[in-house]
Each structure stands twice: as C-alpha cells, then as structure tokens.
Amino acid sequence: MLSKTMEKALNGQINAELYSSYMYLAMSAWFSGNGMAGFANWMRQQAQEEMFHAIKFYDFVGGRGGQVALAAIAKPPGAWKNAIEVFQATLTHEQKVTGLINNLVNQAMDERDHATNIFLQWFVSEQVEEEANATAILDKLKLIGKETGGLFALDQELAQRLFTLPAPGA
Ligand code: FEO
C-alpha cells in the first residue's frame, strides 16, 4: 500500500511524464512545419515513449492500491529558433526529469518503501539513456552547424526511429 505522500508524488510524476509527451509532440509539430520530417518523426516517437512512461506510473499507483489523480497538463512552448535549440531544450528537460526521478527515489528510501524504490530503478536507468540520446543528437547538430547536407542526412537518420510499445508489465 502506498503512503498518501508517495501517492501524491507519483501522481505528480504521471503529470510530468504526460507533459513530456505533450512537449515532444509540440516539438514534432514544429519540425513538421519546418520541413524536417525525420526530426518530426523522432519527436513523435519520443512523445509515445513518454506516454508509455506515464502509463507505467499510472499502472503502478493503481496496482499498489493508490488512487490515480490526473491534473491539468501545462501548455508547452510552440516555437524554437532552430534544431539545436530544440535539442538543447530536450536535454535540459531530461536533466530536470532525472532530478524528479532522483527525488522520488529519495522519498521512497526515506519512507522505507522498497517496492516503489525497486520500481523507480527502471526509470533511473532510463534517464541515463534519455540524456545520452539527446546529447548524441545535440553533438551531431553542433558538428553539422549550418551545413545543409549534414542536416539533411541527420533528418534521414532520425526518420528511422520507431518506438515499439513494450509488452504490458515491461
Ligand atoms: Fe520520461 Fe524522457 O523521461
């Protein structure tokens, strides 16, 4: 059984993951509107991955006898200067989410809530990957600079990303 404080914190994380999904969808829309279909695809897949994260928290709260409480999702930004700015914002956002996950782990440890702590470990590892993915693309964009051929090639590469929904309970 979840404590009320842990339940509240986990509900907060459901909202944070839903916001992430919403923000990446906004980024996808911006890339689409700017003729970068591959980047738009990458962000759209990312939005789906964040929805999966939200559902993972949702199922965990419900599965431990807690009450899921959905709150309003904040409006994401809608415009950026260029692809570098988008991926800088992505990395900054993921670093913030890593901090949120770490705070949840600290809270679970303080409450001696071992089940929640174990559940959160998946997200601790996932955040390492999330930050690495954003950093890798940001590094490539910095290397490419204003060279359109490089940007075109990266757009084609990012068009290949496909998020496959893991099996239930994964
Ligand atoms: Fe759900 Fe990008 O962290």
Walk me through this protein's architecture.
The chain has 170 residues and is an all-alpha fold. It has one domain: Ferritin. Helices cover 75% and strands 0% of the residues. α1 (4-33) runs antiparallel to α2 (37-63) and α3 (83-110) runs antiparallel to α4 (114-144). The protein is elongated and about 55 Å long. The chain binds MU-OXO-diiron. MU-OXO-diiron (FEO) binds at residues 17, 20, 50, 53, 94, 97, 130.
Name of the CATH first level: Mainly Alpha
Count of helix runs: 5
Going by CATH, the architecture would be Up-down Bundle
Low-confidence regions:
none
- Which structural class matches the secondary elements? mainly alpha
Order of helices and strands: HHHHH
Overall mean pLDDT score? 97
Largest sheet features: none
CATH topology: Ferritin
| Amino-to-carboxy terminus distance | 21 Å
DSSP summary, beta strand count? 0
Question: Measured on Cα atoms, how large is the radius of gyration?
Answer: 17 Å
Silhouette:
elongated
Bound molecules: MU-OXO-diiron
Total individual domains: 1
The helix content, as a percent range, equals: over 70%
CATH H level, superfamily name: Ferritin, core subunit, four-helix bundle
Proportion of beta-strand residues: under 5%
